[in-house]
Design a protein that fits this description.
Length: 59
C-alpha cells in the first residue's frame, strides 16, 4: 500500500502533474488529460520511470 503522504509529493516525471493511486490495478496514474501515463507499482514501490509507464488507452 502506498502512503498518502508519498502520493502528495509524487508528480508525473513527464509533465509534472499530480498523480493518483489506482489500487485495483496497482499503478499510479497521472491526472493530466494530455498526459495520463500509468506507472506500475512493484513490491509496494512506485516505478516512476517514463520508459516503464503505460500510455493511456483512447476509446
Amino acid at each position: 500500500m502506498i502512503d498518502k503522504e508519498l502520493l502528495e509529493i509524487l508528480a508525473c516525471p513527464k509533465c509534472k502533474s499530480e498523480v493518483r493511486l489506482d489500487e485495483g490495478a496497482q499503478r499510479i496514474i497521472c491526472t493530466s488529460p494530455s498526459c495520463g501515463l500509468r506507472y506500475p507499482i512493484r513490491d509496494d514501490i512506485p516505478v516512476m520511470l517514463i520508459d516503464e509507464a503505460e500510455k493511456p488507452t483512447t476509446a
